[in-house]
Structures are given as C-alpha cells and as structure tokens.
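Hi V.,

You were right to ask for the full record rather than a summary. Here it is.
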Amino acid sequence: MPDGLVDPAQTCYRGDMMDRIDEDVRRQIDQLVDAYRDRCLWFLRADYYPTDRQEALRTLDYIRRYGDREAFRKAGELYQWLSPDSSRPSATS
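Predicted structure:
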C-alpha cells in the first residue's frame, strides 16, 4: 500500500467498501452481539454477526428492544453512532 493511503480492508466492516465502519465500532458491536446473543438474538443463527451497516443497525435495534436497561444503553450508543441521521444538523442548530 503506498504511503499515506489506508488499506480498505482495515477500514471496512467485513470488507464492504460501500459501508465503512470503524474497526473499533465493529469490534464493539460483535462483543455486544456475543454478550446478548442468548437473551436478545436467540432467533438468529448461533454464528451470526452483522456484515454491513444496515444489519448492524437492525441487530442493535433487536438488542435495544429485547435486552435489559444496560443492553438498551450500550446498543443505543452504537446505534446513534451508526445511524445515518446522526450526522445531520438538528432542527435547533
């Protein structure tokens, strides 16, 4: 890789070039999936992890919906970070 350029494989969520997610956020989502798989995601495959932004948002929504208060808080923080609307200016801005 030439100097100054970032390897796309290092910045993409599961290799999807159109839907970049920070590697740290991807790791946090995967950890949350592992922590709440039995309680909140029992209806998904046992080896399921989201592969793109839309799947991540949907999975975080399941965790918020079916989890406890702490799950709601943790998933909500990640959901807000990933949400396409979170970068838009607010009505009061």
